[in-house]
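Pipeline run #58 for the internal structure catalog. This entry was flagged by the ingest filter as a single-chain record with no existing model, so it goes straight to prediction. Upstream metadata was stripped on purpose; only the residue string is passed forward. Reviewer on rotation: M.T. Logging verbosity set to normal.
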Amino acid sequence: MTKKQNSNDEKKRLDWHSGFEGGLMLSLRHYVQDLQIEREHPLSSEPLRIDFLVIKKRPEVLINNAIGREFKTYNLIEYKNPNDELNIDVLWKVIGYACLYKSFGKSVDAIKSEEITVTILRASKPVGLFKYLDFKGIVTEKTSPGVYRIDGIVMMPINIVVISELQDGELKALSVMRPGADIDTVRQFIDEAQTFTEPGDKRFADAVLEISATVNEKLYERLRGDDRMCEALRKIMAEDLQDAENRGVEQGIEQGLEQGIEQGIEQGIDIFIEDKLEDNVPEDKIIERVEIRFKVSREKATEYVKRCQESFVAGVS
C-alpha cells in the first residue's frame, strides 16, 4: 500500500462527526440553556437520521453567530466532512429528511414548515452544486461570509455553510477542523479552549483538536515547537486524561491501596487507549498521545498500545 493510500485510509477512519459535534457544541455553548440538541435524531422507526436536530426552546432567543442567526424552532443540521460529496442529490436527500421530520409530528401540522430550517456544513464551497442551481434558475444568495441561502426549492430556509470562508469568531471550533486551517485561528482556538470551565467543554475541545491535528500535521508540528502552545494543548487534554485515570484508579483502589493505585493508573492508560482504538485513531497517533499525556517514554507508550491492541482485537473477534 502506498503512502498516499495510507493517508486516504486514515482520513476515512477519522471520526469526523464526533469532531463536528465538539465544534457545534462549542459554537452554541453560550446558548445551551435555550437549546435542545440531539445527535443523529431518528426521523422514523427506520434507520433514517439527520446528523443534528437543534430545537430552540424559547423563540425569542437570538443565536448570534453565522450558523444560528436564522434558526427558527426546529433546525436540522447535516455535516459533510472533506471527503463527502455535496451535490444536487445530497441536497434533495437532506431536504427529504426535513420533509419527513415535518410529517412525523404528533398531530396534523404540529410541526409548522415555516418553523423549520435546514443547514448543511462543508469545508469547501460546493462549486458544482452552485453552478447546477444557477443553471436551474434557483437563487443562491451569500448572506454573510461563508453562508449561502438557497431560495426557490422548498418553502423552508436552506443554508449552505462553507467552513473555509467563515469569519465569525464564535465558530473557530469549526474552522480549525478543516484541512489547511489557518494557524492563527488554531492558536486562538487553543487559547480560548483553555478558558473553558463548563463540564464537557474540554471534552468537545479535545474532539475538535484531535481532528484538527490529524488533518493539519505540519501545522501542529510547528505548534509543538512553541512551548506555550504545547503546554496549552496538554492542559486542554488533561480532563480526558483525568477521567481515564480516575476510572482506572477507582477500579484499582478496590484491589488495595498502593498496589491498587499503581494498577489503577495502568488501567486508566488502558481505558484511554481502548477509547482511541474504538474511535479508529491511528496507532502512531495513540502512541504519541500516551507519551505526552502520561509522561512515559516512546518505548513504554508503544508497549501499552501494542498490549491493548492485542486484547482489543481478541475482544472483538
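catalog note: The chain has two domains: 3-181, 225-316.
catalog note: The mean pLDDT is 83.
status: ready for reviewer M.T.
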